[in-house]
Amino acid sequence: MRVISRLNNNVVLCRDDDGRQVIAIGRGLGFMTDGEEVDLTRIQRTFYDANPQGWTFLDELNGEILGFAAQMTDLVRDWLPYPLSPNFTFILADHLAFAIKRMNEGIRVRMPLSYDVEQQFPEEYRIGRFICNRLLKTYDVRLPDTEVTGIALCFANNALATGGTYQAEGNAGGAASMPFDEVLERCVAIVENALGVCINRSDFNFSRFATHLQYLYNRVLEGAPLEDGGVGSFVSMREQLPDIAEATDGVVRLFHDELDASLTEEECFYLMLHINRMCSKSRADSTPKVDAERAAEGRPCEKT
Predict the structure, then answer these.
(1) Order of strands across the sheet with 2-8?
(2) What is the Cα 174 distance to its own chain's centre?
(3) CA neighbor of 88 nearest in space, from 121, 120, 66
(4) How many angstroms separate the CA atoms of 11 and 59, rounded?
(5) Residue 27 and residue 147: Cα distance in Å, rounded?
(6) For all residues of the chain together, what is the average pLDDT?
(7) Within a 10 A sphere around the Cβ of 236, how many other Cβ atoms?
(8) CB 299 within 8 Å of CB 189
(9) 170 is a domain residue
(10) Distance of alpha carbon 230 from the chain centroid
(11) Can you list the pairs that 161-168 forms with residues at least 24 positions away whose Cβ atoms lie under 8 Å?
């Protein structure tokens, strides 16, 4: 195994004897030169199939936190009904390192959707609590309760990135005909085309929208009834926000045509709320209207 490039003092990108790229972790490995043969006894952990392109955070990532994140990933992997991506350990380590930095600097992050996350992703929320408790026991670091939600969203967003494989055995085949990642991309394209915006996927409100859509998708897959308690302000909201209503109608049609699901008035109302929040800043920025052909194909918008 030979070094290809240094990622930080303790992490290097290597190529093994079979020609496969592998990320290797070991104390001081980053001080080796490109092309140098790695002493395998110095390697503490390896990661195959991870893609470090664009990972600028590795330069400052603490080796202990990376090791802790790797240990946590190994522990909870079998608790989840979907696979964790090869990159997940690094994503979790980055999140934990930033959360600790925020805590040390006295910065508190509001998590207004904590209750939603706990209800919609109970297993991920339980894992978030478990990781915070282990961090306290291991390093005597007590993260704020809001960070439980942040860690839970790391796992939920991993599910989105890996195709949203929350599907339980025995789900109806018709609903599973389109994986969640495609549903999300198509819905985003519909909204972008209807409102003439380019949605910022790093924005917190996009995460809320994606989380809500995942929850709705799961309920459709499970065949759970969509109860309709009725929302008195739904009609007036449609009148006040006709463009948001148009975007919502497009998402509703997608669920009907591709997943054979009829959404209730209450579900449509909450979709409108999430779409309006997600697009409020983008609309204020007056982003040019996206190409309808790109939207029809489910491709992300391009700014001009």
Answers:
(1) 2-8, 11-15, 21-25, 45-48
(2) 25
(3) 66
(4) 9
(5) 29
(6) 79
(7) 9
(8) yes
(9) no
(10) 31
(11) 161/85, 162/82, 162/83, 162/84, 162/85, 163/82, 164/82, 164/214, 164/217, 165/81, 165/82, 165/83, 166/81, 166/82, 166/214, 166/217, 166/218, 166/221, 167/81, 167/221, 168/81, 168/221, 168/222
- Both 120 and 68 in one domain: the answer is yes
49 and 116 in a single domain? The answer is: no
Per-residue tokens: 131: 């990781």
List pLDDT tens digits, range 104-114.
Answer: 888 776 665 67
Where a domain ends, among 141, 162, 183? 162
Token pair in block for residue 153: 């969203």
Angle value at C-alpha 247, between 235 and 237, nearest 5 degrees? 20
pTM for the full predicted model: 0.54
Q: Is 238 contained in some domain? A: yes
Residue 63 corresponds to which tokens in the numbers above? 């080796």
Note whether 278 and 290 are within 8 A (CB). no
Residue 190 belongs to domain with CATH number:
1.10.1790.10
Give me the residue label for tokens 């389109």.
Answer: 178
Each residue's pLDDT tens digit, 63-106: 788 889 989 999 999 999 888 888 888 889 888 988 898 888 88
Please answer whether residues 278 and 191 qualify as being in contact, where contact means their C-beta atoms are separated by less than 8 angstroms: yes
pLDDT of residue 291: 41
Q: Are 97 and 141 in contact (CB under 8 A)?
A: no
pLDDT at 300: 47
Strand partners, 47: 23
User: Closest Cα to residue 217, out of 185, 269, 179, 249?
Assistant: 179
Round the CA-based radius of gyration of the chain to a whole number and report it.
22
Whether the Cβ atoms of residue 132 and residue 55 lie closer than 8 Å to each other: no
What the block records as the tokens of 3 is 């070094």
Q: pLDDT tier at 57 (50, 70, 90 boundaries)?
A: low
